[in-house]
Amino acid sequence: MRTLILFIFLLSLMTPGCTRAISEQARKMVDTDATFMQVRENPDRFIGKHIMVGGRIAGVKHTPEGTSIEIVQFDLTDSGAPADTFISSGRFLATSSEFLDALIFRKGMLITLVGEIKGKKMRRIDEMEYSYPVIAMREWYLWPGSDWEKSSFYPPPPPMYDPYYYGYGFEPYWYRPYIIPYRWR
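RE: above sequence
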């Protein structure tokens, strides 16, 4: 009986909690009728409403009014995390009157936020004018370990990388490429 109670206790410690990245109070403010696609097409129609969006940070800009974060939008999963796919509905600007340090809000980080829609702003992306929906940040969550620099290695570290692996399951010497390390003259 003791072992069963101990097992259940240890199992409860190992199971993740059901906490969410964004608080319930902020989630209650969100207008569920406003999707990001609708907001991107006509942001003026949704001014003053709150939306929950997320994506990957493309850049941070500091101005006298505060901080502006350019974000590439991704759909959110059930847990509220941005689904890091190659499918996006566009970009948006998340603004804050506070100073948000660019070393914390780094390019490549995944972010989820709840904010108030403020309208649109025209900015340039390379040679093109782009209309960004502007969202004033109320609450946000940076997903740990979502940095591009940390998540992709090339070449991978030694246990995962074998330059002579050709998919045969074993690497006998005759499958290795023939390289002459030194040429006699």
